[in-house]
Write a structure and sequence with these properties.
Blueprint: H1 2-6, H2 13-21, H3 25-43, E1 48-56, H4 82-94, E2 99-104, H5 108-112, H6 114-124, E3 129-133, H7 139-148, E4 152-154, H8 162-168, H9 175-187, E5 191-194, E6 197-198, H10 205-218, E7 222-223, E8 226-227, H11 244-257, E9 264-265, H12 267-272, H13 276-282, E10 287-291, H14 295-298
Parallel strand pairs: 1-2, 1-10, 2-3, 3-4, 4-5, 5-7, 6-8, 9-10
Length: 310
């Protein structure tokens, strides 16, 4: 079975469905062990550490699952100053973490202000990797941020199915717009990341397989997934959380499909599953995000219930 699993990228949909749904604990463990073996062979034993800087929780969107959605009036909003962002980068650099991930709500007007900040980060830390996760932006702003020194951009597609996408997002947001942004980021030369929530309301195994096929088509450099976790004050607050086990199986499948990709063991997985980051590494992930957001602002970046910083 191991050699079959190593050819996961060529498996038919029916075999992928079996890997995701099988009740066999032995098959699931073999899948994870094989993915870990491939990760060690291709990426090596080092687990890459990223410095996550949640620079702003101001967002123009009203996604139905998100704890910082625009209509949540109870969320205290913040945006870090340029000095605070640079202090976070400096703290990470002193800790030996050479990759900074600036993540925030979708806010194009504010994102324009990040162009000189990214340029300053590049000047102060010329060998650092600068990753952005700022949502859908005008293409010219993507280009300006790239010119300023950003290397990577993570834009999760959330789902490859247009009907499911519409269920998760307000009217006016379209999957085709999201995918156009991802393709433009690749065209501009960013190391580009995609990903989705596992177990989001209305999601089926068929949807997850569609996600895998879409990523095979586009070829992301990074893949970020985590289980759906409901948040109070959102339309999905009473929906069940996604499955940590399915998330781990997907991490393993993605490692086998995309052996060269960087795949994090996410904070959402660690929130849902004690020891989740280590479990993700054992299933084929090779990246961990450490939060460097200032302590006074961390609880305000409240994407889902119980969000952990470790």
């Amino acid at each position: 079975m191991i050699e079959t699993l190593k050819n996961t990228r060529n498996l038919p949909d029916s075999a992928l469905q079996e890997l995701l749904e099988s009740p066999s604990a032995a098959l699931a463990q073999e899948l994870k062990d094989t993915a870990r073996e491939v990760c060690l062979k291709v990426k090596g034993p080092e687990v890459l550490i990223r410095a996550l800087i949640e620079w702003s929780n101001v967002c123009r969107n009203d996604c139905l699952y998100c704890g910082i959605r625009r209509s949540r009036a109870d969320v205290p909003r913040y945006s870090l100053s340029p000095e605070e962002i640079l202090q976070c980068c400096g703290a990470a650099w002193r800790d030996g973490v050479p990759t900074f991930v600036l993540q925030g709500g979708e806010n194009p007007a504010a994102a324009e202000g990040l162009v000189p900040i990214v340029r300053t980060i590049r000047e102060r830390f010329p060998s650092a990797a600068i990753t952005l996760s700022l949502g859908e932006l005008p293409f010219e702003l993507y280009a300006a941020l790239k010119e300023a020194g950003a290397n990577r951009y993570l834009l999760r597609h959330e789902t490859a199915n247009p009907e499911h996408y519409a269920r998760l997002h307000p009217a006016g947001m379209r999957l085709e717009t999201r995918l156009a942004c991802i393709r433009e980021l690749k065209r501009l030369g960013y190391e580009t990341g995609m990903g989705m929530m596992v177990g989001s309301p209305g999601q089926t195994t068929r949807n997850l397989i569609e996600d895998l096929r879409l990523m095979q088509e586009i070829g992301p450099h990074m893949i970020g997934i985590g289980p759906f976790i409901p948040q109070d004050g959102t339309p999905f607050e009473n929906c069940p959380a996604g499955s940590a086990e399915t998330t781990l199986r997907l991490i393993a499948i993605m490692r086998l499909m995309f052996p060269d990709a960087n795949i994090p063991a996410t904070t959402a997985l660690a929130t849902l599953l004690p020891g989740g980051k280590q479990a993700g590494i054992q299933a084929g992930a090779n990246v961990i995000m450490n939060v460097y957001t200032p302590l006074k602002e961390r609880k305000k970046y409240d994407l889902y219930k119980g969000k952990t910083d470790v």
